[in-house]
Write a structure and sequence with these properties.
The chain is built from one helix and 28 strands. A four-stranded antiparallel beta sheet has the order 1-28-27-26, with no helix packed on it. Strands 2-3-4-5 form a four-stranded antiparallel beta sheet, with no helix packed on it.
Length: 319
Amino acid sequence: MTKDKKFPGDFVFINDDESLFASVSRNTVYVHSIEARKTVFKTKSLSNLDCAAISPDKNLLAVKNTSGTLALYDMKSGEELCRDDMEKTEGEPMFFTSDGKHIIDLDWSGRTMLFDCGTKSHTVLDNTRPLFRCDFIHYDRFTKKIYRFMANGFGYGPGIVQTTRIDENHLSPEQVAYKTVQDFKKELPDHIHGLSFCKEHNFWYDFREEKIIRCDKNFKKLGSINLPETNSVTKASKIWVSPNEKYLFIDYGKQCDIEKTRVSEMKLIPSLSVLYDMKTLRPVKDFSYDYVSNFTMYGNDRHYIIGTWGGTFVGEIET
């Protein structure tokens, strides 16, 4: 069995042609070549980094930290081009427009912002609040749409899912108006325990019912999937479905009762994550990486990337 390749930093981004991925660790960002399986760019940057994006022409790298500050780099020269505080709010990953001239930034308050790579300045495109609060906001690289989950209150409860499409030809506030595509009367999809935007469908984990919900791209429910049988001593912590929907990745976390385990003992207790065949729900591969934070697959779901607090691991499915 081929051993996974370890890269520094926690995985946060893969580009559309699946040639590069980025990882971050505290104040350092790394860019790695998938084909060469090596780090091709590295620089110290903002403190507490948590997001990164690479321009389509692979010349620019943008990073963002937990304070919402954005920094832009020239990947050829390594020069830092600018920093912008944006709206000083933590958020979700940003993305470049297809012409590479603008960055669309998303924060936890639900704001959609435009950063101009030429003028090095930003504007707020949308800050509407149709409901009490924004529960989650996310850019889907397959549909090229932004999804915004608006909640009626705190905690788990009803809300709506809205979408908008932004590209280089639609950059004015009027063109960015969000449209409601789904109204959840009982409970919004839960992004904390697992929400996957795949090429054909979206999936989310209903942790109360312990079922995986399959939806169309507008979050209309199409069916549900029971969790696979497992030898884990803990329940599923978070799930991911691969882009082509061939595999299901479940992180079960530390194999112990956390409430009854001393902190000093935690390091000695193994973790468990499992990759399952999506059709049969049979296990394909087990992993023991601690504190899994992110997961995706590439190359028609033949290769995987697992992000953890201790590094990123890249491997392949052996047939």
